[in-house]
Each structure stands twice: as structure tokens, then as C-alpha cells.
From TrEMBL:
Lineage summary: Bacteria, Pseudomonadati, Pseudomonadota, Alphaproteobacteria, Hyphomicrobiales
Name under which the protein is recorded: Succinate--CoA ligase [ADP-forming] subunit beta
Binding site for substrate: 274, 331-333
EC number per UniProt: 6.2.1.5
Any single biological process term in GO: succinyl-CoA metabolic process
Family according to the record: Belongs to the succinate/malate CoA ligase beta subunit family.
One term under GO cellular component: cytosol
Catalysed reactions listed for this entry: (S)-malate + ATP + CoA = (S)-malyl-CoA + ADP + phosphate; succinate + ATP + CoA = succinyl-CoA + ADP + phosphate; GTP + succinate + CoA = succinyl-CoA + GDP + phosphate
Enzyme class, UniProt record, top EC level: ligase
Subunit structure: Heterotetramer of two alpha and two beta subunits.
Length: 399
């Protein structure tokens, strides 16, 4: 689960991480009060969407005077003007894709006198099963570009969970960023506080870009991006309360209600599969035969008829879907349950696109019989290769 920048900063502040003062607003009418509360003389007006690159982003329908999704205001009047220009419009960045995201919230923040900009993040390193820190002097830049062009400017290290943060970790960060004296001490404290937040809130990714040194020599998190481990949210109702469903795909929200692993993709063939490995293989083979999957959907090993019905409805609700492939290998999952779920869903929502079903495993003959006797226009498949070719050909034939 992702949260907005202003929410991430409020959370980090609870753990002692230095952040600038700011006020979240939801309408331009609130801008003047926010500017007055902060006092100025400089304010930063920031679009709040779940995507990076907001400053370099462009609005979907350009207007005269557009300056991206992050703007520097030098008066309370400009704070109001910029807020009015940004709210309700669709911002397109490298991370949103061409569809962009609508800006429904703005963060008005104190302006900062910046002396230096750095990059710092913490994430789960699945190779070492530890929390890893990534540090670079190239703040404000896309870290993937830095890694590709100047990898020597990136320092990484991991924290042993048995010992937690040690003083030498802070010294590593200070050395990597060229900090000394009091700034080096601040770096050590920052690593301590970030690690505490990471572990305490079950964070999966924490990015500060940029981490700045102000002209009066303070380290400040000027931006913050935080993602949480969704499997641990039951432990953090305060974090769940921060969820902004307007930033999420409606189909993914619906899938979460049924405990379905669903991710919307950009293709035109809907997939319903059981097991993450089989799902990935299904996506790959669809691409191999020249089409693109519309989703990743894993119904799990013990799905019920109701769960399968819900999954099918979610797939068919996507207007980009031009064909559906059901690929089930029944171990714990029974093929007859899948068949009954598919039939129930088709009868309820109808079927306007080609449907190919490949069943194998537990109760496979019963599953095939249920489908064949249903009277539905379903194309059976013998194996994954056969299924992929049939659904791709069906979609291409209907195009």
C-alpha cells in the first residue's frame, strides 16, 4: 500500500526524522489559510499523487503558464493561484503512464534554502533477507539513471536484524555523502530513526529524494515516498486509515475484498490462473504468441466458487479485455469448482469476448463435463501452449 508525501512525512516525523512544515489542502479556498499558517516568505505547492517525477510532469490538457506539478510560490496569492491551477487536473509523469493521475490534494510546504541534495532509501533486500540502505550524492535524480550511468556514486549496505543499526552505519552514510562534524552526527541519527520507522511500521520501501543539507547545515527530508507491506497492514490500523482509494485501480480494490492477487496491466487478454508461478508463465506465453496480458490474477490454491465468480467479474469489467484465458492446474484447487465459478459468472455478467479454458489436475474430467454441458461458447484447450495459441488467435480474429 502506498501513501501520499504529506502522510509519509507526518509518519516519519513521529520517528524523529526532520521534515519541513507543511499543510495538506483539498481545495484552493484552503490555500490562503495554509500560506498564512506557514508564514512564508517562500512556499512550495506540491501535487499529491502516488507517483514520482511530479515536478517534471505535464498536465494532460496543457494551459498557458503551466509549470508542472510542483511550484515555488513567493506570495500567498501565488499559493492560491497555483493551487487553483493544479487541483482537479490530470498530471502525467514517467511513473503514471500516459493516462496520468488526477490531483485531488495539494501539500503546501515551507520553502527551503538548499545547499546540497542527496538520495537515500531503505528497502527489503530479498537476497540477504535484511533491510538495505541505498545512498547517493546524486539527489533529485532518477536513481535508476544514476545506477546505469554512474554506479560508483551509489553506496549500499544492509542492517543485521540481530544487532539493528550500529554507529558505523551512520558513518557509512556520512562518508558516502561527504558529511563531517555535526552533519555526520545528524546522518547517524537519521539512519537510526529511518530504520526504526521501517521496522515499526512494516514498511517495504522508503525513499527520500532529495535529502537536503540546508544553508544553516541541517539535514532535512525534502520529499518522502513510502510503501507498506500489505500483508502486515492488519497490525497497523493507523496506516490503513491513510489509504487513498482514488489513487488505486478500482478493479484492484474490488479484488482485495476477495483476497485475490490482482494487478491491472496494459494488454487485452484477461487471465485467471491459480498459483503465482503458473500465472507468470501464462503472461509470458501470451506475449510469446504476440499479444499482451490485461492482468495478473491469481485466485489462489483454495478458491471458492464465489471467489472465482468475483475474479471473472473483475476481468470482464475491464473494457480493454478482448479475450479471456482461464488456466487452472488443480492441486488443492478443484477443476469443478473453477468450472462452476466461471459458469456462474458468465450467466450473471454475460460473455461478449472469446473465452478459452484449460483445466488439468483434481476433478479435471468433472470440470470439463460441467463446462461442455453448460451450453456456453467456451473453447477448451489441452495444455498451456494450446490455450495461449487459441486465445491469441481468437482475439486477433475478432480484431
Amino acid at each position: 500500500m502506498n501513501i501520499h508525501e504529506y502522510q509519509a512525512k507526518a509518519l516519519l516525523k513521529e520517528f524523529g526524522v526532520p521534515v519541513s512544515r507543511g499543510v495538506a489542502i483539498f481545495s484552493a479556498d484552503e490555500a490562503a489559510a495554509a500560506a498564512q499558517e506557514l508564514g512564508g516568505p517562500l512556499w512550495v505547492v506540491k501535487s499529491q499523487i502516488h507517483a514520482g517525477g511530479r515536478g517534471k510532469g505535464k498536465f494532460k490538457e496543457p494551459e498557458a503558464g503551466d509549470k508542472g506539478g510542483v511550484r515555488l510560490a513567493r506570495s500567498a496569492e501565488e499559493v492560491h493561484e497555483f493551487s487553483n491551477q493544479i487541483l482537479g487536473r490530470t498530471l502525467v509523469t514517467e511513473q503514471t503512464g500516459p493516462a496520468g493521475k488526477q490531483v485531488n490534494r495539494i501539500y503546501v510546504e515551507d520553502g527551503s534554502d538548499i545547499a546540497k541534495e542527496f538520495y537515500l532509501s531503505a528497502l527489503v533486500d530479498r537476497v540477504t533477507s535484511r533491510v538495505a540502505f541505498v545512498v547517493s550524492t546524486e539527489g533529485g535524480m532518477n536513481i535508476e539513471e544514476v545506477a546505469h550511468n554512474t554506479p560508483e556514486k551509489i553506496e549500499t549496505f544492509s542492517i543485521d536484524p540481530a544487532t539493528g543499526v550500529q554507529p558505523f552505519h551512520g558513518r557509512k552514510v556520512a562518508k558516502a555523502l561527504g558529511l563531517s562534524g555535526d552533519l555526520a552526527k545528524q546522518a547517524g541519527k537519521l539512519v537510526d530513526n529511518l530504520y526504526a520507522a521501517f521496522i515499526g511500521k512494516d514498511i517495504s520501501m522508503l525513499e527520500i529524494n532529495p535529502l537536503i543539507v540546508t544553508t544553516d547545515e541541517r539535514l532535512v527530508a525534502l520529499d518522502a515516498k513510502v510503501s507498506f507491506d500489505s500483508n502486515a497492514l492488519y497490525r497497523h490500523p493507523d496506516v490503513v486509515a491513510l489509504r487513498d482509494e482514488t489513487e488505486e485501480d478500482a478493479k484492484e480494490i474490488e479484488a482485495s475484498k476477495y483476497d485475490l492477487a490482482y494487478i491491472a496491466l496494459d494488454g487485452n487478454i484477461g487471465c485467471m490462473v491459480n498459483g503465482a508461478g503458473l500465472a507468470m508463465a501464462t503472461l509470458d506465453i501470451i506475449k510469446l504468441y504476440g499479444e499482451e496480458p490485461a492482468n495478473f490474477l491469481d485466485v489462489g490454491g483454495g478458491a471458492s466458487k464465489e471467489k472465482v465468480t468475483a475474479a471473472f467479474k473483475i476481468i470482464t469489467s475491464d473494457p480493454n479485455v478482448k479475450g479471456i484465458l482461464v488456466n487452472i492446474f488443480g492441486g488443492i484447487m478443484k477443476c469443478d469448482v473453477i468450472a462452476e465459478g466461471v459458469i456462474a459468472a458468465v450467466k450473471e455478467v454475460g460473455l461478449t469476448v472469446p473465452l478459452v479454458v484449460r483445466l488439468e489436475g483434481t476433478n479435471v474430467e468433472l470440470g470439463k463435463k460441467i463446462i461442455s454441458e453448460s451450453g456456453l461458447n467456451v473453447v477448451p484447450a489441452d495444455d498451456l501452449d494450446d490455450a495461449a495459441q487459441k486465445i491469441v488467435n481468437a482475439v486477433k480474429g475478432a480484431a
